[in-house]
Each structure stands twice: as structure tokens, then as C-alpha cells.
Design a protein that fits this description.
With 292 residues, the protein is an alpha/beta fold. The chain has one domain: Aldolase class I (TIM Barrel, Alpha-Beta Barrel), CATH 3.20.20. Helix content is 45%, strand content 13%. It has 13 helices and 8 strands. The longest helix is centred in the N-terminal third of the chain and has 15 residues, at 53-67. 47% of the residues are buried. Catalyzes the condensation of (S)-aspartate-beta-semialdehyde [(S)-ASA] and pyruvate to 4-hydroxy-tetrahydrodipicolinate (HTPA). It is an enzyme of class 4 (lyase). Homotetramer; dimer of dimers. InterPro entries: Aldolase_TIM, DapA, DapA-like, Schiff_base-form_aldolases_AS, Schiff_base-form_aldolases_CS.
């Protein structure tokens, strides 16, 4: 479980800011059809930072319902307050999810000992598996490998999503962590190489746009066919980069809207739709990839 291409799913919204549940259902069904191996619900790409707790829980519930057991659903439960993260865990643990993705606390800048205590508290509040999420570009604090190893002693902590893009982190982690500890990339640009060097999968923003290609790339890499994996990934390199020319998920939502998969490209404030130049850049890429 938790290997391959897991999409960091967007949360569709209408122009009035409400969640567009029909579009959400269509996205979930599309990912099942296209071979996505699993879904991360209400993570960073799902705008977890601006969904109130009841709405966060409802979106996770709907995604689980729409998937109907076809693929595993990981619920985002990250927060900069440990108490809030536990509340999110309590609210979603009985919905049929397969586990949690929990980000390093942002803004607070906790010490390593505080990060360990934070994740131990979250992992102890559930019987479900927990994936750690290190993304210092968002959280400021970088969770080093030694800290990961300390947290990994908890039996419910089963893996790490590393979004640093630093290949040396994978080698370092493999040397000191248990061989069964899952290590997934959270950086699409380096995700293929990450897997070819021994990573277990990618929690992918790009999979929102080309789910079939990301699934096939991951399958090739996991089977040891690194030549095929790199061949699939090479034409996607520009897309990987351009989906982040503005803060995620601004561009992915715009792309999905232009592809006819969302009724609206709306985001929750303080996020807004992309600048005209960014719209042009991603439109050209979608045309090149024959997605529009």
C-alpha cells in the first residue's frame, strides 16, 4: 500500500467559494479510470489551509464515498496546532480512509524535539498508518533525516513524503531507516529519478493533469524498467515545472478548468486565479500535450 502514483487532489470550488461536489466526484472517477493508484484528500493541493474543519472532514468523506473502495484514500490531517491535527484525525479516521498524511507544523518553526512530540501525539491518536510530510518550502522548518528516524520508531508511522527535491535525502534515509519504511517523492520534477533510485512512489500534483502517464511512469519504475519510466517522464518535465510558476494549486486548477474537468478555476482567498501570462504559459503546454 501507498506505492506508485498518488494524486494530490485539488478541491473543486464554484464562483461563490462553495465546494463543487459534482466536479469532485467526476475527478475521483476519472482517476480510478485512468489508473491512479491512490488519492491524497485535502492536502496542500486540496487547499487544506482554508477549509474549516467540518468542511475538511466532509470533503474527505465524499472522496471516500465516490471512490467506493476502488483505490485507497489518504486524508490530510496536517496543522500547525497538534490539537487541531488530532481533531482532524478523529473526524476522518472512521470514514474508510487508508491512512493520514501529516505535514511538518508550519509558521511555528518548532525545534526537532517539538516535531517529534507533535508527530508522536498524532500517531498515538489513531490506529491508522501515518505518512510524514516534509516540505520546507511551505513550512520553513526542514525535518532532517535524523528527526524522521526518531519519529519512525512509532509503530503507526510508516513512511515519508519528501518534497525537498534533494536526491541525497533518499540515499541518507535508506541507510538509516527500516527497509520497509516507505519513502515517496513530493516533487514532480525529480519524482521519476527519485523512484529510479529506490523511492516507492510520488504524491503528485502533475497527476491531476496527466493521471495515466504518471501511473504508467510509476509502474515502470517500480518494476525496474527505468528506461521506460524516464521515457514517459521526459515529455512531462516542462509541465512539472509550469504547474508551479504560481503557488500550488493555482495553476493545476486553471489547467483542469481549461481541460473541461472543473466548472470553475476558483480558489479560496487569499489564493486567486493566475495572472494572464501564467494562463498563456499553461495553455500552450496543454495544447502541446493534446490535453485541450
Amino acid at each position: 500500500m501507498f506505492k506508485g502514483s498518488y494524486v494530490a487532489l485539488v478541491t473543486p470550488m464554484l464562483s461563490d467559494g462553495s465546494v463543487d461536489y459534482p466536479s469532485l466526484q467526476n475527478l475521483v472517477e476519472m482517476h480510478i479510470e485512468k489508473g491512479t493508484h491512490g488519492i491524497v484528500a485535502v492536502g496542500t493541493t486540496g487547499e487544506s489551509a482554508t477549509l474549516p474543519t467540518p468542511e475538511h472532514i466532509e470533503v474527505v468523506k465524499r472522496i471516500v464515498d465516490y471512490a467506493s473502495g476502488a483505490i485507497p484514500i489518504i486524508a490530510g490531517n496536517g496543522a500547525n496546532s497538534t490539537e487541531e491535527a488530532i481533531i482532524l484525525s478523529e473526524g476522518t479516521k472512521d470514514l474508510g480512509i487508508a491512512g493520514f498524511l501529516s505535514v511538518v507544523p508550519y509558521y511555528n518553526k518548532p525545534q526537532p524535539r517539538g516535531i517529534v512530540a507533535h508527530f508522536n501525539a498524532i500517531a498515538s491518536a489513531t490506529d491508522l498508518p501515518v505518512l510524514l510530510y516534509n516540505v520546507p518550502s511551505r513550512t520553513v522548518t526542514d525535518m532532517g533525516t535524523a528527526t524522521v528516524a526518531e519519529i519512525a520508531k512509532h509503530p503507526n508511522v510508516v513512511g515519508l513524503k519528501d518534497a525537498t527535491g534533494d536526491m541525497s535525502r533518499l540515499k541518507e534515509a535508506r541507510e538509516i531507516l527500516d527497509k520497509d519504511f516507505l519513502i515517496l517523492s513530493g516533487d514532480d520534477s525529480t519524482g521519476c529519478e527519485f523512484m529510479c533510485l529506490g523511492g516507492d512512489g510520488v504524491i503528485s500534483v502533475t497527476a491531476n493533469i496527466v493521471p495515466d502517464k504518471m501511473a504508467k511512469m510509476c509502474e515502470a519504475a517500480l518494476s525496474g524498467d527505468y528506461t521506460s519510466a524516464r521515457k514517459i517522464d521526459a515529455p512531462l518535465q516542462d509541465l512539472h515545472e509550469q504547474l508551479f510558476i504560481e503557488s500550488n494549486p493555482v495553476i493545476p486548477k486553471w489547467a483542469l478548468y481549461k481541460m473541461g474537468l472543473l466548472n470553475s478555476p476558483e480558489l479560496r482567498l487569499p489564493m486567486v486565479t493566475p495572472e494572464l501570462n501564467s494562463q498563456k504559459v499553461i495553455q500552450e503546454r496543454l495544447i502541446e500535450l493534446k490535453l485541450v
